[in-house]
Amino acid sequence: MIDFDTVAAAITNSTGARFQVKHSERRGGGCIHQAWLLQGRDGRRYFAKANQRPDASAMFSSEAEALAELASAGAIRVPLPICRGEADGIAFLVLEFLPLVAQGSFAEMGQSLAKLHTTTHQCFGWQADNFIGTTPQKNAPGSDWPGFYRDQRLAFQIELARGNGLELPQAGQLLANLQVFFDGYRPRPSLLHGDLWGGNVGFLQTSGEPVLFDPACYYGDRECDLAFTEMFGGFAAEFYSAYEARWPLADGYAWRKRLYNLYHELNHFNLFGGSYGHQARGTIAELCAQL
After folding, report:
1. So what's the architecture of 4-98 in CATH?
2. Among this protein's residues, is 195 annotated catalytic?
3. Using CA atoms, how far apart are residues 237 and 180, in angstroms rounded to an integer?
4. Distance between CA atoms of residues 115 and 77, nearest Å
5. Residue among 5, 88, 144, 195 flagged as catalytic
6. pTM
7. pLDDT tens string 150-159
């Protein structure tokens, strides 16, 4: 159990207003962290996440940096980071508490995501390596997107998967010929959420305004975010139509989508094992058939 007095002291130091925990309520923290809604004696509420993994402090630092970057883009609502720290070997991160529901304006989410993707940078990558789930995510900056995606995304996950016992006989062929999927296509570095699936989005209870959380940010091809929204059944149809009304997708997306979701299939195998390995092997075979 996290020491709430230490967390409260960190909130006090960060906000400049004394905070005392009156009530704590366990909330879902996904499959990685423990989480609580903290109610203060003065009525303020915060969302606190904690973990005693050795790399938890680095994970929370990366998350706070990503949320701050998303917030600074001014395109879509995210919970603002308040403070982070450590208590008795347990790392914690405190965020703005936003009361969320599962349904709201998916059209507004699509429009806002397209606006977010107009936030650009001189290079692909990020200022530091971060995490996709609990897996390290490599982010060495570069100007060549196919090379970045090959080396920093697919090759790294393929190496991990092989170390976890997955045979991928066609992986080398795919990596050597990746450029085929980018002929005539030159994406610019867009600010990405990086882990955009249904479990990491919500809507404000009061207004239906869309909210994104639990990011794995970097600057990459905007299609990566769109692709992952489709991996587990997809978002509402109005999300995609609103996005494309603001920024249409380029020809070839249908195959690049498969290529981009291969990264997540491999990562899910490395995290959870099971059928994700078979899925990734099948995707590699289908992509190699297009070479």
Report:
1. 2-Layer Sandwich (3.30)
2. yes
3. 30
4. 12
5. 195
6. 0.96
7. 999 999 999 9
